Amino acid sequence: MTYLKKTAAALAFASLSSMALAAANPLSVHILDLQSGQPTAGVTVTLEQKNGEGWQQLGSAVTNAQGRITAMYPVDAPMQTGDYRIVFKTGEHYARLKQETFFPEIPVQFHVEKTDQHYHIPLLLSPFGFSTYRGN
């Protein structure tokens, strides 16, 4: 098998593996930059679950080159009903770009009732505004 064919096969397998992982994980996020229309890579995102009066961090990850984190929920635990919060650390991102921003963090709180569904939280981002919704 030629080098090019081996590389193509490896990329195809890696793509399928990440899609399988994403399908198995109940929570994903995606960040798009509204100014450029491009994905926003390198942003730290944390996942927290409401625990009494406070929040317990369940995990943290960094958006990839496509601005995505395909497996945000801990892989070793089934999703539970309850209140959750995703926190996008946008201040760190804009500091790297040496660009001012009004929102150093963007917390998105949501409620999970149906644990057999996939939850996708996209963030449309600009330095002075943002929008989010439940995606699929």
Task: Please give a structural write-up.
The chain has 136 residues and is α+β, with helices and mostly antiparallel strands. The protein has 2 helices and 8 strands; from the N terminus they run αβββββαβββ. The strands form 2 sheets. The chain has a 4-stranded mixed β-sheet, with no helix packed on it. A 4-stranded antiparallel β-sheet has the order 3-2-5-6, covered by helices on one side. β7 (119-126) and β8 (129-132) form a beta hairpin. The radius of gyration is 17 Å and the shape is globular.
Strand order of the largest sheet: 4-1-7-8
Return residue spans where pLDDT drops below 50 for at least 5 consecutive residues.
10-22
User: Largest sheet, described in full?
Assistant: 4 strands, mixed
H/I helix tally:
2
SSE string: HEEEEEHEEE
Strand content: 35-45%
- Gap between N and C termini, in Å? 38 Å
- In total, the number of strands is 8
Labels describing this entry:
136 residues; 4-stranded antiparallel sheet; alpha+beta; 21% helix
